[in-house]
Amino acid sequence: MSEVVAPGLEELAPELAVECQGLSQRFGSVQALDGVEFTVRRGEVFGLLGPNGAGKTTTIRVLVTLLRPDSGTIRVFGLDVVRQAMAVRRAIGYVPQQLSADQGLSGYENVWLFAKLFDVPRSQLRARIQEALALMGLEEAARRPVVTYSGGMVRRLELAQALVNRPRLLVLDEPTIGLDPVARAGVWQRVQELRARTGMTVLLTTHYMDEADRLCDRVALMHRGRIVALDTPARLKESLGQAATLDDVFRHYTGSQLEESGSFRDVRSTRRTARRLG
Amino acid sequence: MSAAHAELHAASAELRPGWWRVLPSRIWTFWVVELYRIRHDRTELYTRAIQPVLWLVIFGETFTRLRAIPTGGVPYLDYIAPGIIAQSGLFIAIFYGIQIIWERDAGVLAKLLATPTPRVALVSGKAFAAGLRAAIQSMIVFALSAILRVSIDWNPLHLAAAVLVVMVGSAFFSTLSMTIAGVVLSRERLMGIGQALTMPLFFASNALYPVDVMPGWLRAFSIVNPLSYEVEALRGILVGTPTNLLLDALVLVTALVAGVAASSALLGRLAR
């Protein structure tokens, strides 16, 4: 990116991209979030890890202003997600768990829609759409209808949709769920390139511990609506001994296997995503 | 470089258009997207043109011979053409809520709601997209009416006014559909209710016969049925029957505003 920036703006920006304090949410008899606290520093890739039903997606839904929490607050670059929702939305690019690109449109048209919804000025429209598509390696396929895309391409297109606003914080909910290993690697490669080029802050959720280990600067382990551990992957592993993996760390803190928890509803939505991917 | 990039975003985040600009901007955006969709797949336009033709050909031609319906001297085919045009829009719009439920399940709605788009603007955008589809559909029915030698007023200004009426009327019925979607939250239930609604909305209106032939209780329903006002307006514009266009427009616009309010209030239930 080659924009020139006005001097002095640098000092105005808060150091913290996300500050989450005392976040609690109950759905009927289920305590989905139980006092979640964490901060994400500017420019870092931060992973929320945990099994299905741990509260990752609920946390994300509060963060992207879709859900008003029972109690607690989240601030995004100092903006309150409940009281300053519109300003927060302008700062965030959000990719939900399901494959949500419009199959009835071309790749370019999908990105155009989000450029318009984020009020990208008309004079910059075309350039910004091309930029977002190029960042995700979709220039060639841009004019093709999305029905012809592979699962990995659809995911990258959704990243382009989120990036067309040039967000300060990219929020990815299970970005590689249901993708085959090649497509998964492709998505991660693009996210890493993006980060190297723009220094964008990335908050993601995943239940693939190996991916989190390789890609995240810091990770928070979630279990039953709480954060049970938060540190760099290296330090978390160190605390358990040399050969430890993040899986071991997770087991250590929760006393359970990853695969054993999670609700029917999560499994169903995961399956639905997988089915749409073919 | 990286910090500069982030800061530029901070600066651009200050450019926040007011709602009076957001609303028309979003409606325009969803219009264009609807046109893109239609361009990619036109089959629905063609298949949806079949039913209006069948109404005109089978029902219309038969009842023309029966001469059972007092139309005030207007040939029966001309009389029902505006009714059939309104109906084809109604059929498109009344199932529009299914799309919202599908978008909920596919994560699209979450993504749309996470953009700086107020719910009222989102619902209005969707409603006018449905209205646009119905309006394009109505143009096809106009063309077919010409082939069937229905003598309606071909003055381009009148046709444009008729298309506008179809758009507003259908936009209202799509908000009705989205409101029901927000209540029942499932495609199957919405299909059932949609089907149960179209029949009384259509037959308890003046689409096929004047309200005067109805029993009193049904006439009462017809008076609160927005489709009646849509047909009144279309018939007035296209056939020249006497009507109070101002009242028709007022009823349709009021219904649309109420529909937008109700469906955007219920949108939160779908987003949950």
- Spans of at least 5 consecutive residues with low confidence of chain A: 1-11
- Radius of gyration of chain B equals 20 Å
What percent of residues of chain B are in strands?
Answer: under 5%
**Rounded average pLDDT of chain A:** 86
What oligomeric assembly is this protein in?
heterodimer
Element string of chain A (H = helix, E = strand) = HEEEHEEHEHHHEHEHEEHHH
Which structural class matches the secondary elements of chain A? alpha/beta
Quick one: overall form of chain B? globular
Overall number of strands of chain B? 0
The proportion of residues forming helix of chain B, as a percent range, comes to: over 70%
Low-confidence stretches of chain B: 1-14
Largest sheet of chain B: none
State the total count of DSSP E strands of chain A.
Answer: 10
Count of DSSP helices of chain A?
Answer: 11
Distance between the termini of chain A: 35 Å
- How far is the N terminus from the C terminus of chain B? 38 Å
* Helix vs. strand class of chain B: mainly alpha
Strands of the widest sheet of chain A, in order across it, are 6-7-8-3-9-10
> Major sheet of chain A, described briefly?
6 strands, mixed
Shape of chain A: globular
Description of the molecule:
The complex is a heterodimer of chains A (278) and B (272). Chain A has 278 residues and is of the alpha/beta class. Helices cover 39% and strands 23% of the residues of chain A. Chain A has helices spanning 9-12, 56-63, 85-91, 107-117, 125-135, 151-163, 181-198, 209-215, 233-238, 246-254, 264-277, and strands spanning 16-27, 30-41, 45-49, 71-76, 79-80, 92-95, 169-173, 201-206, 218-223, 226-231. In chain A, helix 4 (107-117) runs parallel beside helix 6 (151-163). With 272 residues, chain B is mostly helical. Chain B has helices at residues 2-12, 19-40, 43-66, 76-94, 96-105, 108-113, 119-147, 156-184, 187-203, 216-224, 226-238, 245-271. In chain B, helix 2 (19-40) crosses helix 7 (119-147). The longest helix of chain B is centred in the middle third of the chain and has 29 residues, at 119-147. Chain B is globular. The model of chain B is unreliable at 1-14 (pLDDT under 50). The interface between A and B is large, with 54 and 42 residues.
